[in-house]
Design the sequence.
C-alpha cells in the first residue's frame, strides 16, 4: 500500500506501491511537479513588476496579489464560486487597460513563471515510472491558468513539446471550483467516474489529500521539505528581507537550493549533520560556484592562474570546490595567517603604524610585540617599560617608533618574508608572470594587500583575491572580488554579516593552530606553546554534511539550476548566512554552544562562541547586552544568545548592525521604578528619589554613585515587600578595562529589617533597607554601585520622598 505522506526522494518508488486497480496517476502542479527558484509564489510577481508591460501600466507585485484576492471575492459574490482566470484578475487590477495590454501582462507573467520554474527531477522520474507501467498521468491544479496555458508552461519549462507524456490537465479556473470545493467530482466525471482508478499526489494537506480522499480517491501528501527545513525557510526569508531591503522592492527573493534541500541527507543523524547540510551547505555551494567562475574569468584573460586557499578558514571552501568540480582547479593550500602576512610586509614606519592603529590597547602590548617580530628580550623590556607609564599604550607606540627599534623590525620582517615566500613557492609552484588567486572568507583582504608587493618583488606574480565577503572591494581596483561585495551589496550588509561571523569561520576552518612562522624551506610552524587544535567531532560532522550537500548540488540537473547569476548566488548566500548567524534554531544554538573560537592574532586566546547562561545574566544586569571588544570577553555568538532570550532582541540587534543606528542599554524599555535613598554623613542627611530601570525578565538595575564622603541606604521597605536580588556590584562607568566587583552582604553592604526566606527571596519590613557605607578611600570618578533586583511584591502607595528640613543645600544629588 502507498504511504499517506511522501518526501520527494520517495516519489519514483510510488508506482510500484499503487493498488492494482489504479489506472491513472494524478499530480498537483505547483510545488509538486513545477517548483520555483524563489522563496514564495508571490516572488514571481516581484519579477513581473519589473517587466515593461507592468512598468508601463504601473502594476506592482502587491497590487497584482491584491487584485487576485478582490477578483476572487467578486466572483464568489456573483456566482458562489471564487475561481477566476488570469484575464479576469487583470480586468480587476486595471479596469481601463485594453485587451492588448492585458494580454501583454498575461504573457509577461507567463514568462516570469517559466523563468522561475523547474520540474523536480523526482516528480519527473515518478511520471516516467508511471508511464512505463502503462498508467495514465494527469495534472489537477488549483490555478488561474487554463489547461492549455498550463500545458504550454510545463512544455516550456521541461523543454519537451510532449510534456513528458502528460495525458490531461484539469485546472480549477475551468472546472469552476477548487479541489477542496467539489472540484474532484468534476475531475472524476471527466476521467470516467471511477474513483478507485485514480491515485493523487500533491503538497496541500486539504486540497490534495483530505479532499481527494473524501471523494474516494487514494491520495498521498507530498512533504516538499521536512519540518526543520520548513521552519528555517521562514527564518531565512525574514533574514533576507531585513538584510537586503531591495528584495521584494527591486527583485524577488531567490531560493536556488531548496530543491536540493528537498532531497534531504540520508546520512544525517545529528543536529551537527543538519547544520552542515541545510545551513552551511548552500552557502559553500554558492561560494564554490563563485570561485570557479572567477578562476575561469581570469584564465580567459591569461596568463596561467593558480589557486591557493588560505588556511585555516579556506579549508572547507577548498573541499567544496573539489566536491563541486573535481580536478578543475589548479589548487593548493597556503598556511598564511593574517599575523604571517603582516609580519612579512613591515617595510616602513607607516607599516608599523598601521599595525598599531589596528589593535593597540593596554591589553594587546604582548601580542603587538610578537606581531612586530621584536626579539624576546627587547619585547619584554619595551612592554615592561610601557606598563610603568601612565599611558602604557602611548608609551609602547612611542618606543617602537624609535629608529633603532624600527631597524630591528624591518630586518626581522625581511628575513621572515623570505621564509614565507619559500612557503608560497613550494606549495603552489607558481612561476614568474603567472597569477595567483588567493581564496579566503574575507573580509578586508589584509593578507592579499600585505603580500601583493612582497610576492610581486620576490616571485614576479600578481595576486587576485576571491572572497565570500569583502568590504571596500571596489576601492582596490580589479584585483579582488567577493560573492557579497559592493558590486551589488552596500557595505553595511557586509558589516552585518561579518560582525558575528566567528561561528561560521569555526565551521569552515582547518583543525590546526594558526601559523606564526616558517622553516627556511617554507614548512609552516605554529607558535611555541600554542594550544593544539583537536578536531571537533561536531565540526567534522558539519563539514562532511556540507560536502554531501555540495555533491548533491553538483548532480542537480542543469535545467533545475537556472542561469548561474552571481548576484542571485550572493543574495542566496547572504540570506542563508544571515539566518544562521542571527536566527539559529534552538537545536542549532545548543549544538553550536559547545564550540570554541580562537583569535588569529598570534595569540592562544580562545572563548566559547555561545554562553547562554552568561548572556541571560548580562541581560538581567545591563539591559540590552553590549558586546565588549576586549579579547578576553569576546563572544561571537551573541545574536544566537539574544535569539535564545527573545526573538525581538535578535531582530533589534540585526537591524542595529545592518542600518548602523546606536543602541542605548538604558533605553531598551520604558518601565521604571522609583525608590527612596537616604544619603548621610556626620553633618547632614538627605532623602532622594532615584529611578531603577527595567532590564530583562522583570529585573531592574539601580545605579548609585559611590563616594568616600557619604553613606547610602536604599529604603526598599517603603516600596516593596519582597524582592529577588541578583547582584550587588561595584564598577567604573565608561571603561571596559575593569570587570565589575561583586560586593558581599554582611561585609560590604548590610541589611536592616530584612531577611532571606527559605527560597532565597528577600522579605522586607516597612523599614527594611540596604546600608552601603562610604568608601574607605577616595574613589575613581565614575565609580558606581549597581544593584540588580527583581521586585516581586509591592507594598503600595507611599508618600513621595522629599529632602529633610535638616538637609544641607550641599547634599549630593543622585543620578541613576
Sequence:
Amino acid at each position: 500500500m502507498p504511504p499517506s505522506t511522501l518526501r520527494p526522494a520517495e516519489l519514483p518508488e510510488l508506482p510500484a506501491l499503487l493498488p492494482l486497480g489504479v489506472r491513472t496517476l494524478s499530480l498537483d502542479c505547483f510545488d509538486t511537479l513545477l517548483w520555483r527558484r524563489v522563496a514564495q509564489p508571490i516572488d514571481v510577481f516581484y519579477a513581473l513588476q519589473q517587466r515593461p508591460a507592468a512598468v508601463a501600466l504601473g502594476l506592482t507585485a502587491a497590487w497584482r496579489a491584491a487584485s487576485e484576492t478582490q477578483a476572487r471575492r467578486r466572483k464568489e459574490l456573483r456566482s458562489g464560486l471564487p475561481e477566476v482566470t488570469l484575464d479576469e484578475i487583470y480586468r480587476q487590477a486595471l479596469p481601463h487597460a485594453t485587451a492588448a495590454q492585458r494580454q501583454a501582462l498575461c504573457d509577461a507573467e507567463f514568462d516570469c513563471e517559466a523563468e522561475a520554474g523547474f520540474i523536480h527531477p523526482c516528480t519527473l522520474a515518478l511520471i516516467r515510472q508511471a508511464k512505463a507501467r502503462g498508467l495514465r498521468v494527469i495534472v489537477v491544479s488549483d490555478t488561474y491558468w487554463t489547461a492549455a496555458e498550463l500545458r504550454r508552461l510545463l512544455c516550456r519549462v521541461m523543454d519537451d513539446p510532449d510534456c513528458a507524456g502528460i495525458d490531461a490537465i484539469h485546472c480549477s479556473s475551468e472546472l469552476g471550483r477548487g479541489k477542496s470545493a467539489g472540484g474532484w467530482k468534476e475531475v472524476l466525471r471527466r476521467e470516467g467516474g471511477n474513483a478507485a482508478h485514480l491515485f493523487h499526489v500533491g503538497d496541500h494537506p486539504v486540497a490534495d489529500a483530505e479532499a481527494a480522499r473524501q471523494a474516494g480517491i487514494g491520495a498521498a501528501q507530498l512533504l516538499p521539505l521536512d519540518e526543520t527545513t520548513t521552519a528555517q525557510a521562514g527564518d531565512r526569508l525574514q533574514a533576507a528581507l531585513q538584510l537586503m531591503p531591495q528584495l521584494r522592492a527591486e527583485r524577488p527573493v531567490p531560493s536556488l537550493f531548496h530543491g536540493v534541500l528537498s532531497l534531504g541527507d540520508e546520512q544525517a543523524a545529528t543536529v551537527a549533520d543538519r547544520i552542515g547540510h541545510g545551513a552551511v551547505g548552500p552557502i559553500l555551494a554558492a561560494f564554490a560556484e563563485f570561485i570557479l567562475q572567477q578562476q575561469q574569468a581570469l584564465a580567459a584573460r591569461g596568463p596561467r592562474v593558480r589557486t591557493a586557499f588560505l588556511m585555516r578558514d579556506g579549508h572547507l571552501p577548498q573541499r567544496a570546490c573539489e566536491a563541486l568540480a573535481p580536478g578543475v582547479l589548479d589548487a593548493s593550500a597556503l598556511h598564511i595567517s593574517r599575523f604571517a602576512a603582516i609580519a612579512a610586509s613591515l617595510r616602513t614606519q607607516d607599516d608599523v603604524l598601521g599595525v598599531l592603529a589596528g589593535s593597540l590597547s593596554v591589553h594587546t602590548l604582548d601580542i603587538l610585540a610578537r606581531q612586530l617580530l621584536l626579539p624576546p628580550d627587547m619585547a619584554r623590556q619595551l612592554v615592561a617599560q610601557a606598563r610603568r607609564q601612565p599611558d602604557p599604550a602611548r608609551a609602547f607606540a612611542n618606543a617602537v617608533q624609535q629608529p633603532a627599534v624600527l631597524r630591528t623590525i624591518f630586518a626581522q620582517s625581511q628575513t621572515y618574508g623570505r621564509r614565507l615566500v619559500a612557503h608560497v613557492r613550494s606549495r603552489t609552484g607558481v612561476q614568474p608572470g603567472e597569477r595567483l588567486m588567493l581564496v579566503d572568507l574575507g573580509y578586508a583582504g589584509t593578507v592579499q594587500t600585505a603580500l601583493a608587493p612582497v610576492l610581486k618583488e620576490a616571485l614576479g606574480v600578481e595576486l587576485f583575491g576571491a572572497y565570500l565577503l569583502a568590504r571596500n572591494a571596489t576601492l582596490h581596483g580589479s584585483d579582488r572580488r567577493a560573492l557579497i561585495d559592493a558590486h551589488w551589496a552596500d557595505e553595511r550588509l557586509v558589516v552585518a554579516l561579518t560582525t558575528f561571523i566567528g561561528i561560521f569561520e569555526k565551521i569552515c576552518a582547518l583543525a590546526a593552530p594558526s601559523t606564526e612562522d616558517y622553516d627556511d624551506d617554507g614548512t609552516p610552524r605554529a607558535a611555541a606553546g600554542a594550544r593544539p587544535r583537536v578536531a571537533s567531532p561536531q565540526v567534522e560532522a558539519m563539514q562532511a554534511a556540507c560536502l554531501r550537500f555540495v555533491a548533491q548540488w553538483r548532480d542537480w540537473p542543469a535545467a533545475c539550476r537556472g542561469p548561474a547569476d552571481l548576484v542571485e548566488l550572493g543574495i542566496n548566500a547572504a540570506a542563508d548566512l544571515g539566518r544562521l548567524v542571527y536566527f539559529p534554531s534552538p537545536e542549532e544554538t545548543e549544538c553550536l554552544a559547545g564550540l570554541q573560537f580562537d583569535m588569529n592574532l598570534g595569540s592562544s586566546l580562545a572563548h566559547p562562541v555561545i554562553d547562554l547562561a552568561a548572556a541571560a545574566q548580562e541581560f538581567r544586569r545591563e539591559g540590552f547586552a553590549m558586546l565588549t571588544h576586549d579579547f578576553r570577553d569576546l563572544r561571537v555568538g551573541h545574536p544566537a544568545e539574544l535569539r535564545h532570550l527573545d526573538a525581538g532582541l535578535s531582530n533589534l540587534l540585526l537591524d542595529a548592525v545592518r542600518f548602523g543606528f546606536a543602541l542605548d542599554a538604558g533605553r531598551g524599555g520604558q518601565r521604571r521604578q522609583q525608590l527612596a535613598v537616604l544619603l548621610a554623613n556626620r553633618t547632614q542627611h538627605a532623602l532622594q528619589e532615584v529611578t531603577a530601570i527595567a532590564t530583562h525578565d522583570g529585573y531592574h538595575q539601580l545605579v548609585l554613585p559611590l563616594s568616600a564622603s557619604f553613606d547610602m541606604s536604599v529604603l526598599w521597605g517603603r516600596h516593596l515587600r519582597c524582592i529577588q536580588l541578583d547582584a550587588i556590584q561595584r564598577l567604573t562607568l565608561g571603561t571596559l578595562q575593569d570587570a565589575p566587583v561583586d560586593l558581599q552582604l554582611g561585609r560590604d553592604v548590610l541589611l536592616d529589617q530584612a531577611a532571606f526566606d527559605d527560597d532565597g527571596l528577600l522579605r522586607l519590613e516597612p523599614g527594611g533597607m540596604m546600608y552601603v557605607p562610604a568608601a574607605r578611600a577616595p574613589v575613581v570618578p565614575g565609580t558606581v554601585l549597581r544593584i540588580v533586583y527583581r521586585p516581586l511584591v509591592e507594598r503600595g502607595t507611599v508618600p513621595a520622598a522629599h529632602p529633610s528640613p535638616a538637609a544641607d543645600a550641599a547634599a549630593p544629588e543622585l543620578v541613576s
